[in-house]
Amino acid sequence: MRRALLVVDVQNDFCEGGSLAVEGCSAVAAAITEHLREATYAHVVATRDHHVDPGGHFADEPDYLDTWPAHCVAGTEGAQLHPALDRSRLEAVFDKGEYAAAYSGFEGRADGVPLADWLHERGVEAVDVAGIATDHCVRATALDAVSEGFATRVLLHLTAGVAQASTDAALEELRTAGVELAGAVHGSHQRYKGTSLGPGR
Predict the structure, then answer these.
(1) Which residues pair with 95 in a beta bridge?
(2) Which residues participate in catalysis according to the annotation?
(3) pLDDT tens digit string along 51-103?
(4) Distance CA 126, CA 201 (A)
């Protein structure tokens, strides 16, 4: 079975020091690099939030459920993949969310090609999902992977969750959808670093 690794949104703005940082995400970036030294995949790709003008996705007073502080704006350092992630293994980067909210990596495109098409064209039958955050973009990407017909596994030790309650709910939803869960979530007891409802700085 041809298996691909999908590295979801391991970007500077989601890691410590970013505008929407989740505790432990820099460690996740390094752990994915370590995993790639030993694991064998037919293909390895990444996704990125790449916002130009996503409308109501950004808010001056975000609720951290449907609206968020500005993050991963196209052309900024915050939108770049984290330096601890080994980018030499990436065959393609799929950008999403230019003009709308986009949580699933399957909303992304690389050179105009949607992620699902790219994988199907290369005979991929199974995917591992890693990245940020377990209860948001990892969750959405894994659910869409199942919908696209891929045998899907989330490598929980290579993810970080925002909050315990939302992470627990996401994991139950993934189990119900038939996603295999491996390992334990890093930092799922944390909320956004800093305040109970605010991003880390």
Answers:
(1) 48, 109
(2) 9, 96, 137
(3) 888 888 888 888 877 887 879 999 999 999 999 999 999 999 999 998 888 99
(4) 37
